[in-house]
Structure to design on (70 residues):
């Protein structure tokens, strides 16, 4: 049950990255890399929906690094 819940969460993150691509392409590409998803196109028409059953999570730098204000 937990693995299917986590896979569902990763799929939702992948879909969110697909939708934010027009305004934040580098962030979307980083999310896809971190999920271990390879794609040549961020087109909604060409995207597969709920077909990715497993993800290979990779650790990278934070998407939005903290800005320290002194």
């Amino acid at each position: 049950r937990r693995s299917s819940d986590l896979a569902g969460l990763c799929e939702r993150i992948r879909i969110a990255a697909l939708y934010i691509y027009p305004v934040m392409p580098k962030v979307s590409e980083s999310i896809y890399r971190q999920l271990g998803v390879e794609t040549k196109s961020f087109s909604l028409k060409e995207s597969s929906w709920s077909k990715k059953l497993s993800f290979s999570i990779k650790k990278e730098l934070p998407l939005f690094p903290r800005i320290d204000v002194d």
